[in-house]
Amino acid sequence: MKKIIALLMILCSVFLWGCGKDTATQSASKEGKLKIEMLDIGQGDATLIRTGEQTIMIDTGDIDERDNLVKLLKDRNITTIDKLIITHPHADHLGGAYAVFKNFDVKEVYDNGDPTTTQTYKTYLKNIKEKKIKYQQLSAGDELDFGDGVKFKIFSPTKQMLKSEDDLNNNSLVGQLKYKDFTMMFTGDAEKEAEANMVKTYGNELSSLILKSPHHGSRTSSSEVFLKQLNANTVLISLGAGNEYGHPHKQTMDRYKKLNMKVYETDKNGSITIISDGSKDYQITTEK
């Protein structure tokens, strides 16, 4: 009888410990895998990353998608965002930050420090200050630790670009996520000028298995020289169906096709999930 009671107490302890953690993060840790989800958030960017130790978000979609973003995160049992990274302060990347601050416990916030005069941006800074969230500005050469062996290295913008260029798109944070042999490049809305600078400065360091399509597949990005340097075999595009910008542009899609890149689009595929155990072989599943 005593043995049964002892066993029950151990089981209860394990259960209670598990309930105190993010279920999704627990799963990632248990399986020793990295999980990346490009969320179907309309004409904007929002990517959820889970390692065995942390939950990270890169961008938050637009203002009109706030309710959808909160639902998507709660459906995934997210309660805490360890690191929130905003690539640049355009509304379709920053707009959902207000809802994230309101509904989730955000531990740290990172951006490039490039300012804008919009109320959305002012509210974003106000929330960081009022909630006393750790805040850091990033530029080329910086690196973040996502835990469990996952690193995030910043390739752009340089500090000189931030000082001299009044260009929110080209000043986007561009960073490579690296987990053992797995690599994915996140690009914000960086355009050809930033791409050329990275190719000139970093060369083969840019090589990545997967590319997050810069600027939603716009013709102003994804230059051939940049794509060849990355040598990615897969590209993910975050965009809204029938968007007013005509994204993805035909010129960009033609370049992807020419380089034999497998293309996934949130407007057609819904949310896109990548699972990696750190090898060059990764799994991609789509919502539809």
Word description of this protein:
The structure is a single chain. With 288 residues, the protein is an alpha/beta fold. The chain is 34% helix and 25% strand. The protein has eleven helices and 15 strands. Strands 6-5-4-3-2-1-14-15 form an eight-stranded mixed β-sheet. Strands 7-8-9-10-11-12-13 form a seven-stranded mixed β-sheet. Helix 3 (66-75) crosses helix 5. It is globular. The termini are far apart. Mean pLDDT is 91; it is low at 1-27.
Strand content: 25-35%
Number of contiguous helices = 11
What's the story with the biggest beta sheet? 8 strands, mixed
Class of secondary structure makeup: alpha/beta
Indicate the mean pLDDT.
91
- Low-confidence spans: pLDDT under 50, at least 5 residues? 1-27
Strand order of the largest sheet: 6-5-4-3-2-1-14-15
* SSE sequence, one letter per element: HHEEEHEHHEHEEEHEEHEHEHEHEE
Percentage of helical residues?
25-40%
Report the span from N to C terminus: 52 Å
Question: Taking Cα atoms only, what radius of gyration do you get, to the nearest Å?
Answer: 19 Å
Number of strands: 15
Any idea what the shape is?
globular
Which helices and strands, and how do they pair?
Layout: H1 2-19, H2 23-31, E1 34-38, E2 47-50, E3 55-58, H3 66-75, E4 80-85, H4 91-94, H5 97-103, E5 105-111, H6 119-130, E6 134-137, E7 143-147, E8 150-156, H7 159-164, E9 174-179, E10 182-186, H8 192-202, E11 210-212, H9 224-230, E12 234-237, H10 250-258, E13 262-265, H11 266-269, E14 272-276, E15 283-286
Parallel strand pairs: 3-4, 4-5, 5-6, 10-11, 11-12, 12-13
Antiparallel strand pairs: 1-2, 1-14, 2-3, 7-8, 8-9, 9-10, 14-15
Helix pairs in contact: 3-5
